[in-house]
Amino acid sequence: MNTKLTLSLDDGIIDKAKQYAKAHKVSLSKLVERYFDSLENDLPLEVTPVVRELSGIAEDYEGMEKDRMEYLVKKHTS
Prior knowledge:
The chain is mostly helical. It contains 4 helices and no strands.
């Protein structure tokens, strides 16, 4: 059974959502339905190919930050 739902959203958000739905060949209603369904089922977010490709690149983030800070201190205190 489908029930009509009225939402009040910013015009810009609606325009972006419509463009996204059109680009993915899905109705705006179906897009919202899928989003709500994902909340209910606590489904993980879809990992895009770009994110998948970048995963693991910055495994030692804290070490990289320390190295960067040491570099900047040396650079700006010479």
